[in-house]
Design goal:
Blueprint: H1 2-27, H2 36-61
Length: 69
């Protein structure tokens, strides 16, 4: 049960991350002309979401092995 909840949480986190990235790609005619501040803004939001999604996926996959119901 907890494993399934964690996998769903990973999916939601991935969807939010994908939505942020899609806005960046679709909203700019030339991604190479972004300022360093814009790159930093996206990096501060996307990289932690990537790590959180990976952590949720790992915990969900290993939940039964760890003895969680």
């Amino acid at each position: 049960m907890i494993g399934k909840i964690l996998i769903v949480a990973a999916g939601v986190t991935f969807a939010v991350m994908f939505w942020l990235m899609l806005q960046l790609i679709a909203g700019r005619p030339d991604l190479l002309k972004m300022t360093p501040a814009e790159h930093g803004w996206y990096a501060k939001r996307i990289l932690p979401l990537m790590l959180l999604s990976a952590a949720f996926t790992t915990a969900g996959a290993l939940a039964k092995r760890w003895g969680w119901p």
